[in-house]
Amino acid sequence: MEIEHLYLFTALIQLISAVNFANIAFDFHTKVFKVFFNVEAIIDHKFHRINNAIVADQESLQQMAPLETTDGRSNRNSIEQLKKKYTKFREQWGNEINEANDSVKGIETIKWFRSFFMLISLYCIFDIALISILSIPNVSYSWAVVLFALNLGVTLFSIVIILKALFQKESIGGHQLARFTLKYFTIIVLISVLIGGINEICVSNQMFIITPKWVEQTFLYLSIIIPFLPCVICSVYTLYQTQKLENRVSDAVSSLQGKQDELHKEKIELDNAYRLFESNTTNDNISFS
Amino acid sequence: MTEYRKAVEYYASNNIDYLFHNKGSAHAQIIFENIFKNAREHIRISALNLWNTEVVRTKEYLEALKLFLDQPKTKLDILVKSMPADEELTEESDNNIYRILYSHPAYLAGRIRIKTGNGKCFKTIEGSEIHFCTADGHMYRYEDDITERTAQCNFNDSDTAKNFETLFDSAFNGVAEDVNLKNIFAQHGN
Q: If you measure CA to CA, which chain B residue comes closest to A54?
């Protein structure tokens, strides 16, 4: 690709710049997350369906009057033991749903992605400006060097921000993020201009550094690729986290459901004693008198 | 209690065969509300006198019962051990169940029938008085301790519900005359 070919992409870069600017204030990854992960359907509905069963059984057990047979046997101990098992299970249920909700919050509150969008938005301004300068006939090649240096600097800084987004756990304020991003972007721009200036001095003193074509092409391609990085990386990251969370919730719900089924079977065994009692009652042992 | 209510509503609206044990007025009210809201054909109630303020004469119980009667062709049969005194029964208040039933179009249409055992009621072989309510041949609430309001209930147990209905119908049909609310209210200037 030659520099001239970059001009064909300026409209696209302008468009994606607008998207990047818009997402500085509105969390793009949260929007993507909400599209693919319906918190209500996946977490609330599944966990609360189990909760309905737990509540019904627990309340029923609380109200269950122990049966005593004429030979002194009673199901009181069985009732009390099952109540304890349910109390412990309810705690487990509570922990699982809290962890699921914490995971959702963790995904939604990653602030470093805003920094990423801010960085690339600012970069896009310089990207389009430099492409415009390079379209001027006979303009100095040093402007291309400025663009290459800017692309390299922004790429490296993007890697830093992505790593911070993925691995930095402590929260950071919006203003702090903005200051951090602006500070290092300004440094990158200044270094890029400096490198361009040094190149101009070298050229005017007949000192040339021959760079392989592929290096030149790569730095040119970056001008088109970098503007799309925040949307692509955020989308990929969010989709990955969404899948991970869905699997996690699915496993937790299966495990809880399995345990609830076991406890419910024990309760049904207790219930059966009452059902026998009732059917005996309704057959011949009730009179209207 | 909110969670219990949600759980009961879930089991009732989904016709799930599940034996609920319940105790006390609050639980009783939730159960009755859900029986009435989910019934579509025929409710049978056997009670002391349907005059208590803790369960029967509450807004939730009465509104749910009215909603049931508002549906066309629904039937309500009530068999009480005794009726409240006429002076109480004809009192003008928003929670007078007999006034509400009498005023409902279903009463004139013959869809509401009230009978009294005149002291007779359902009893177990040990002599304990019991009350129960059934609906549509598959829902029931059976109170075996009328003081503590300890009961069992199921929204989908046809065998037990039909057993209770057979018992009820046998006693109900054995009482010759209906309680004539029209005469009672007319005699007391209503």
A: B7
